[in-house]
Design brief:
349 residues; alpha/beta; 8-stranded mixed beta sheet; 8-stranded parallel beta sheet; 20 strands; 23% strand; elongated; binds pyridoxal-5'-phosphate
Length: 349
C-alpha cells in the first residue's frame, strides 16, 4: 500500500534561521581576520543539517566539520566535498577509501591514522594536534615522526579543553599550538571553538570552528545578549481533564492534587529529550500563562497544571522552555546535551 502523507507532528521544533545566520555572522566578526567555519556534527547538534546548512551557507560559512563518515552523504547534497572535514579521521582502510572516493578530507589524529591514510593513497588532509585535552589528536612528541612529515596538511588544528572557563590551560594550549605550527608543514591553522573565539584574537589564527553558539548556546558570558536563541520546541495538548483533591498524577503517583485542578497531558517525554531531570520546577507556557509540570515525566508524555488557563484546549501547542543557559543551569544537563538529545520524533521546521 502507498502510505499517505503523515499528519503534522504533535511535537515540533521551530528553528529561527535568522537567529542562526546572525549567530554565525557575530562569531565570524568576533573571529577577526580568521574566517568562521561551522561544526555541524551530530546532525548539526540535533537540529538537522538540512535545516541549518543552507542558512549557514547563505550567511557566508564555507567550512563544515563532521565527526563521523556516516554524516557525509547528507552534507554532500548541499556543499562541495572539499569544504567538509571529518574530525575522527580514518581508523580503517575502508574509511580512507571512502574519504578518497568522496573527496572529503579526514582530520588525521595520530601516527596510525597517518599510516592508514598514506597506505590508501593519501592526498590532502588536515591534522589535529593534541595540545592538552588528551582526547584525540597526534601527540606533540609524535609531530616529528616521518609519517606525519609525509602528510599534505591543509589545516593544522587543535582543540581547547577549557575555553569556557578562565584556566591556565588555555594559554598553555595556545603556546603549545604555536610550537606545533613550527614543526609541521601546513597551509592554515585553527584552534578556537565557540568559547575559544571569545578568548580573543590570539586564539583565532586562520579559521575558527564554532558549534554550540551557532545554535543558541552561551558557553561564556561574552555571548550574553549577542548570541540569539535559535531553537523553540512546541508540543501538542493531547488531553485536558479535571483532577480532584487527593488524586495523583503519573507513574509512582509522585504528585497528589492538593485541591481541584485542571491538568493537561502534553505530547513530549523523555524519549523526545525531555529527560526527567528537566521537569523539576519547570513550567511550559501558553499565551504567556505558565503551566507547571507535575508528576513524573513519561516516555511520550508529561502532565502540566493548567488551572490558570481557561482557554487551553486539546490540539493547542504549548511552548517548551529552551533558553539553553537557563535550562542547563536548572536541570544540570549541559547545553550540548540539551540540543543533541532532542528526539527524532520532533518535526523540525
Ligand atoms: C565539536 C567541536 C567543535 C565545536 O565546539 P563548540 O564548543 O560546540 O563550539 C570545534 N572543534 C572540534 C574539534 C570539535 O570536536
Amino acid at each position: 500500500m502507498t502510505i499517505p502523507d503523515l499528519p503534522s507532528a504533535p511535537l515540533r521544533l521551530r528553528i529561527d534561521r535568522d537567529a542562526l545566520a546572525s549567530n554565525w555572522r557575530r562569531l565570524d566578526s568576533m573571529s577577526g581576520k580568521a574566517r568562521a567555519g561551522a561544526a555541524v556534527k551530530a546532525d548539526a547538534y540535533g537540529l538537522g543539517v538540512a535545516n541549518v546548512v543552507p542558512s549557514l551557507l547563505a550567511a557566508g560559512a564555507g567550512d563544515f566539520f563532521l565527526a563521523h563518515w556516516c554524516e557525509v552523504p547528507a552534507m554532500l547534497q548541499m556543499v562541495d566535498a572539499a569544504s567538509i572535514s571529518v574530525l575522527h579521521g580514518v581508523t580503517t582502510p575502508e574509511e580512507a577509501r571512502f574519504a578518497i572516493a568522496t573527496g572529503v578530507r579526514p582530520v588525521i589524529n595520530g601516527i596510525h591514522q597517518a599510516q592508514v591514510w598514506l597506505a590508501a593513497g593519501g592526498g590532502p588532509c588536515h591534522l589535529m594536534v593534541d595540545t592538552g585535552i588528551n582526547r584525540l589528536g597526534v601527540q606533540m612528541t609524535d609531530l616529528g615522526n616521518e609519517v606525519i612529515g609525509q602528510l599534505e596538511v591543509g589545516t593544522l588544528l587543535s582543540h581547547l579543553a577549557c575555553a569556557d572557563e578562565q584556566s591556565d590551560l588555555n594559554g598553555l594550549q595556545l603556546s603549545r599550538f604555536r610550537s606545533a605550527a613550527g614543526m609541521v608543514r601546513h597551509s592554515a591553522c585553527s584552534l578556537a571553538n565557540s568559547a575559544g573565539i571569545a578568548l580573543g584574537a590570539d586564539y583565532a589564527f586562520d579559521m575558527t570552528r564554532p558549534g554550540i553558539a551557532l545554535y543558541g548556546g552561551i558557553p561564556r558570558a561574552e555571548y550574553d545578549g549577542v548570541i540569539l536563541q535559535t531553537v523553540y520546541p512546541e508540543a501538542c495538548v493531547i488531553q485536558r481533564r479535571h483532577l480532584s483533591p487527593g488524586e495523583s498524577v503519573g507513574y509512582n503517583a509522585t504528585y497528589v492534587a492538593p485541591q481541584d485542578m485542571e491538568i493537561a497531558t502534553i505530547s513530549i517525554g523523555y524519549a523526545d529529550g525531555f529527560l526527567r531531570s528537566r521537569a523539576a520546577g519547570v513550567a511550559l507556557h501558553h499565551q504567556g500563562v505558565p503551566l507547571p509540570v507535575i508528576g513524573r515525566v513519561s516516555m511520550d508524555m508529561i502532565v502540566v497544571d493548567c488551572t490558570a488557563s481557561n482557554t487551553l484546549k486539546e490540539g493547542d501547542f504549548v511552548e517548551i522552555p529552551f533558553d539553553l543557559p537557563q535550562v542547563s543551569a536548572k536541570c544540570g544537563l549541559s547545553q550540548y546535551e540539551l540540543l543533541t538529545t532532542l528526539g527524532r520524533r520532533c518535526s523540525r521546521a
